[in-house]
Design brief:
With 138 residues, this protein is of the alpha/beta class. It has helices at residues 16-28, 47-54, 112-137; strands at residues 4-10, 32-38, 77-80, 97-100. It has a single domain (4-130), classed as Response regulator (Rossmann fold, 3-Layer(aba) Sandwich), CATH 3.40.50.2300. Strands 2-1-3-4 form a four-stranded parallel sheet, covered by helices on one side. The mean pLDDT is 90.
């Protein structure tokens, strides 16, 4: 089976998209290659996002990236993970099916339990999205 490419997009690329990238690469890396980016990268990966990932056995070495870095890359799937339209969710004009799935921004509260909840939601929801995509593409 060919490895599919997925891009997770948000604004800051410090929490949600980073966690999604790490979870997909750790749990589904045999069939998916994930990257993440933002329209206004924060310039760092939030330490609490890294801590939440390490609690489930994922050591993520991500970096906050500008979406423009991936212009011209063909993705199979692009998933925006911004919580609301007010967060300026980016629009991707490159190739690939585009999906939006909201996750709240845990950085807004800075509470560790919020990071854990978003991590768990991503770990539960993203594999469903990828499974649905694989089924539709078959």
């Amino acid at each position: 089976m060919k490895t599919r490419k997925i891009l997770f997009l948000c604004t800051g690329n410090s929490c949600r998209s980073q966690m999604a990238e790490a979870i997909v690469n750790a749990r589904l890396g045999e069939s998916w290659e994930a990257v993440s980016a933002g329209t206004k990268p924060a310039g760092y990966v939030h330490p609490k996002a890294l801590e939440a990932l390490s609690e489930i056995g994922i050591q993520h070495e991500g970096r906050s990236k500008l979406a423009d870095e991936f212009r011209g890359v063909d993705f199979d799937l692009i998933v925006t993970v911004c919580d609301s339209a007010a967060e300026e969710c980016p629009v991707w004009i490159g190739k690939g099916k585009k999906i939006h799935h909201s996750f709240p921004d845990p950085a807004k509260t800075e509470k560790m339990n919020e990071f854990r909840q978003v991590r768990d939601d991503i770990e539960r929801e993203i594999p469903k999205i990828l499974s649905d995509f694989d089924r539709e593409a078959a």
